[in-house]
Amino acid sequence: MTLPPIHHWAVQLELQPLMGGHRHSVFRTYGGEPDLVFKTTDRSEAALAWLVPVMNTARACGLVVPKMIPTQAGTWHADGWTCETYIRGEPATLEDRTKLLEAFTDFHTKTQHLPQRPGFADAQALQSVETGGDVDLNAMPSTLVAVCRAAWRDGAAGPHSVVHGDLSLGNIIRGVDGQIAVIDWDECRRDATVFDTAVLGPATPAQNRARLAWEVACCWTREPDRARKLAKDLMKDAAR
Question: Which of 73, 97, 123, 179 is deepest in the core (most CB within 10 A)?
């Protein structure tokens, strides 16, 4: 097991692995104030730096999010690892998640002007390009690519802004103070706001299909078993 290079952050604390990271190795410290989370990453320095003002805006909108911690050298990663503050709490409920809609609506409004995250592409751009973020349409069967693009064309219209992009219950925590926190901003990008709002509130079948198509494309090379299971559901839904 490879441990994070915590010396880059001048940290000397006990480390324990955290469960639940499907794409990354994740460790947390014990005995710190605050405690920290270290995660593996393959994002560029520019893509990580882009997150800093985005997460500051999220806090200004009332969202509780981790704080990214730079290395002693002033970079946002070292040897393929990042560091952020650890948020204590317990898994959120579906009801907790719905409470985030107002704050995210404000967040979307305040990030409409921001450019795309370096190295990423939104669902609209992926109608004509093949790669962006974790998506590599070249790796997928052409029939499935066509279904994904049709789903995005039909269900990912409307306003664009920065989106969290992965508001699953595993990324939402009820903090010890009762506040709801949102973690794991790794898939954050500029895209149709429906990729967030369709999770937090009512959604049309087309919007849910667009979200499912994104999950398939995003997971195809990183979580192949999950992606292929979801792809079967997407193909069945598209055939109706």
Answer: 123
